[in-house]
């Protein structure tokens, strides 16, 4: 929305700069994106649980007769 107001709209309104409003909306979108990425990375699991290793005695095959 901000880029459209900034670069594509050519209408004029007295007392309000549509291009400035577009710039403000673009900056707010960038800040929102950065905050979202920060929260996404902050709440991810910090460690990954690996495979569980169980140590056992070596396998001795049964004797054949």
Short description:
This protein is mostly helical.
Task: Tell me the layout of helices and strands.
Layout: H1 2-8, H2 18-42
Helix pairs in contact: 1-2
Question: Biggest sheet, in brief?
Answer: none
Mean pLDDT: 86
- Round the Cα radius of gyration to an integer and report it: 30 Å
Indicate the proportion of strand residues.
under 5%
Helix/strand-derived category reads mainly alpha
Which segments are poorly predicted (pLDDT under 50) over 5 or more consecutive residues?
none
Distance between the termini: 83 Å
Number of helical elements: 2
Q: Approximately how much helix is present in the residues? A: 40-55%
Would you kindly provide a written description of the structure presented here, covering whatever features stand out?
This protein is mostly helical and 65 residues long. The chain has a domain at 2-42. It is 49% helix and 0% strand. It is built from 2 helices and no strands. Helix 1 packs antiparallel against helix 2 (18-42). The longest helix has 25 residues, at 18-42. The radius of gyration is 30 Å and the shape is rod-shaped. The N and C termini lie far apart (83 Å). 0% of the residues are buried. The mean pLDDT is 86.
